[in-house]
Description:
Elements: E1 9-12, H1 15-25, H2 28-43, E2 47-49, H3 52-60, E3 65-66, H4 73-83, E4 91-96, H5 102-109, E5 114-120, H6 128-139, E6 144-147, H7 150-164, E7 172-175, H8 178-186, E8 191-194, H9 200-213
Helix pairs in contact: 1-3, 4-5, 6-7, 7-8
Amino acid sequence: xxxxxxxxxxxxxxxxxxxxxxxxxxxxxxxxxxxxxxxxxxxxxxxxxxxxxxxxxxxxxxxxxxxxxxxxxxxxxxxxxxxxxxxxxxxxxxxxxxxxxxxxxxxxxxxxxxxxxxxxxxxxxxxxxxxxxxxxxxxxxxxxxxxxxxxxxxxxxxxxxxxxxxxxxxxxxxxxxxxxxxxxxxxxxxxxxxxxxxxxxxxxxxxxxxxxxxxx
Length: 216
């Protein structure tokens, strides 16, 4: 972040990456440098994002997001390729350890340099199994279950299958986007709906339609 002159812009595909940036900027010396000059220097360059949540966090640190309506990494990659020239300065991509290779691959194929920097790790919450068990024992088996990430599928699905038993076949599974839907399908779970874009409104509409079809 201290060397905007080395990069052509920024790419953010998750709110967690912005949380890491905000932690970084909490240090007094860095915060001062960011406010005085670095923020303005980065603002001359594009800041590409996926989704409204990430876009709003980008605005909180004083930058102007682009591409928030793309909705997923594939569409964002296309958007970036339509705006960036091959062999220009690298785009800085703060990301998680579990990032997918879609965006880096598409940009690499188009000759647009991208420098990935791992800034957070996705791990299972220590109380996850206990929380799920508690919910199922108190509330029963839900009519629908929504997943927001492939890692959510990885960490939660086995517990949900065990808690639901044969009734799992009657549960409607929803996904926030195509990547999460693919993870569910790969695990043998039929996906009843995938949000058209990663917004509460689109997700709600999809779940409502899936449940209404079965009169749930």
